[in-house]
Amino acid sequence: MTDHATPNLPSRDFEATSQFYTRLGFQQGWRDEGWMILKRGGLTLEFFPHPELDPLTSNFSCCLRLDDLDAFYAVCLGTGLPETCWGQPRLHAPKIEESGMRIGALIDPDGTLIRLIQN
Fold this sequence. Notes:
alpha/beta; 2 helices; 16% helix
């Protein structure tokens, strides 16, 4: 097994979070009242309950490092997620950053910033 990380992210409502990420190709691997794990290929996201979270002031984030950023971004667009600067959920199209890395972003319904990084 190669090194990997499983970010722990907030969810105001596990059912709503599961439905959102299922549309992006994730499948539920585990769920009880205190924890939920969603998987998509080699990606794993773990969620803890945070019902009082204000998505407008959330500062949670993680990175998904993707072999095919364009394919994942196309899946996101295909669900109808808007490319906009305001609100959540939303998308920011991939672009070359000053670092030379190609990065896009997904803001989930709970306001979590998920950086989409091309491997």
